Amino acid sequence: MPWPAKQRASTRQRILDSASRLFAIEGFERVSIDMIMQDAGLTRGAFYSHFESKTHLYNEAIGNAARAGGALLEQAGVSGLRQVVETYLQMEHRDGSAMHCPLAFMINDAATQDTAIRDRYTQVFRGFLARLETTLAETHPNGSRQRALQMATGMIGGVALARAINEDQLANELLQACQAGCIELLR
């Protein structure tokens, strides 16, 4: 007897949520299908009824994580963009305890994957950039594209660099500098 459509969608989302978090924290090579399914509270057998391969899941996980982050950015709008920047460029984000932005967390991992994964990563980056540009255009009609590129670089690059640095004080200093630079772009 087949699962009801609602149950199937819910199960798929549980797998995507687990995969998004685990891939972001551990990377493609260190995460197994068994790890994802255990984290989702499901058996390995359920995996193949939702995804054809680990690579397919990875591709979908990037989009899943991006949708969650994109929703926060859209909700914030121009008045809340400063708060988004401040939250994004925090040690809690760097450590993965607050959120797991695929653009910052999967930056190196995605660069070593096949074309389909790199295409998805590029698509997610373009979406993030477009949201920033649209929001910035409300207060900076001229030059919103350049400001959006600078802000994206400061946010994503800041978190990615801070994740690679093993000195908390230096990582925090870096995040604070990126935060100040991005907030300056909002003025």
Describe this structure as you would to a colleague.
Helix content is 78%, strand content 0%. The protein is an all-alpha fold and 187 residues long. Helix 1 (5-26) packs across helix 4 (54-88). It is globular and about 50 Å long. The N and C termini lie far apart (59 Å).
Short account of what is shown:
This protein is an all-alpha fold and 187 residues long.
State the helical fraction: over 70%
Oligomerization state: single chain
- Determine the strand fraction and express it as a percent band: under 5%
Contiguous runs where pLDDT drops below 50 for at least 5 residues: none
Number of strands: 0
What overall geometry do the principal axes of the alpha carbons give?
globular
Cα(first) to Cα(last) distance is 59 Å
Would you list the SSEs in sequence order as H and E?
A: HHHHHHHHHH
Question: Biggest sheet, open or closed, and with what strands and sense?
Answer: none
Instruction: Compute the CA-based radius of gyration.
Output: 18 Å
Instruction: Report the average pLDDT across residues.
Output: 88
User: Number of DSSP helices?
Assistant: 10
* Structural category: mainly alpha
